[in-house]
Protein 1
Amino acid sequence: MKPKKILHSAWEGLMLNKIRSVLTTLGVIIGVASVIIMLAVSAGTEAAIAEQINALGANLIIVSPARGVPGAAKTMLIDDFYAITDQVVGITGVTAEQAPPALTVKAEDITLESIAVIGTTADFPNVRDYAVSSGRYFDMSEDDRKAKVAVLGSGIANDLFGETDPLGQTITVGSTKLTVIGIMESKGMVADIDYDGRIYLPINLVFQKYMPAMTIGGDRVKTIYVKAESQENIPSVITQITSVLAERHDVDASKPDFSVQTQQDIIATQEATTSAFRDLLAWVAGISLVVGGIGIMNIMLVSVTERTREIGLRQALGAQPSDVLLQFLLEAVILSLAGGFIGVIIGVGGSYLFGALGTMETAIVPVSIPIAFGAAAIVGIFFGYYPATQAAKLDPIVALRHE
């Protein structure tokens, strides 16, 4: 038989029971759609994480106490910030941060509870790529003399003053009165931190007024951020920082009590986590495809039984066993490819829908479409081969006698 006629016969065989054919493809549809949607969710999550981390600032190096090292949190001091500033070359800025427990903030008759207060140094806006929208940030001299000034996140400014200009106004943070000198630009949520809901103070003022108990042995800082001149300078800057702090902390540079990370290090760590999650999702989607394939094989075996006399008649009229095999194999492949095509449409549409309507960011992975479609074809061939061989092996005389 000619290939075109075999294909026509296969199509007619499927159309004999349209509803059953459609239901048979459901497993493949779900499997293919699952592959595309799950990979889109995983890729969107990775992209969102990378975007949030990069939003911390460009060419950023993050220095913090090492985890799992006893007493490490007590060794990172403001003097380390000054040492890095003075001794490390190839950088455009350094800033240190420390945060006391959340405080109550008042402005006239408005009171806000549990507000995040961040002590920083003067170069914070430059290092963190976080501009002041109105007014100004405090300078080094104000930080050194513990000036009672504050810079508000845009959200806090709006909550406290509404339409009134906050600049020059007095607020009470804890029990200390401060003068508002600047408002930061709106930045929103970055890595689960609401930058617009924070108040920024000179770090030395924070040490004096809000964390006096931690000054024994030196003023501790939570994190030091260093901005390299370029991506190419980052390895050299990391080496210098490690050398400076290892000497200051009197530790072996190979076993420091501090960690030095770049944004790419953090992204790589996060990607390793999401990669394991993605692999798990891929296995789940793969199982869906296998289940769909088993459904195709089951229905094709039923079809062979139902059409035994038809098979015998075709063979009696001259059809070869290879023609019968090819016809039933084509039926299985057509079912799986139809399911794959519909699954691709649902998967792509579902990915966009998840991204548009849900809180989860999605990003279509182009390679997932041919992979999912190809997997559907393989499922059709693999699970359709056994029923097709069973049909091809039928004895024409026995088949014609079948009731």
Note: DSSP finds 13 helices and 13 strands in the chain.
Protein 2
Amino acid sequence: MNSYPGIVFMAELDKKLKITERLAKCFPDYRNLSDVDYSVNQ
């Protein structure tokens, strides 16, 4: 059971309408990917 059932609906709606994907395109990413480290090990 989910503490907020509406979040499942919102996630499905976002997938179908690609809201987050379209919003992300409004913010260009100027980072140099060779300088970005996503590893967990430190």
Note: The CA atoms of residues 18 and 24 lie 10 Å apart.
Protein 3
Amino acid sequence: MELNQKLRLFEYGSVLTIVLVVLVVVVVLDRASAHLRKRLV
């Protein structure tokens, strides 16, 4: 639970970085799956 530990230690810079990376990965996967759905339909 690295994210939880960083929140407890008030390391908000690291928390923000982790959250942004997760958000970017989710957006990229969403766009990729939408593109594949358009090609297959």
Note: The longest helix spans residues 12-40.
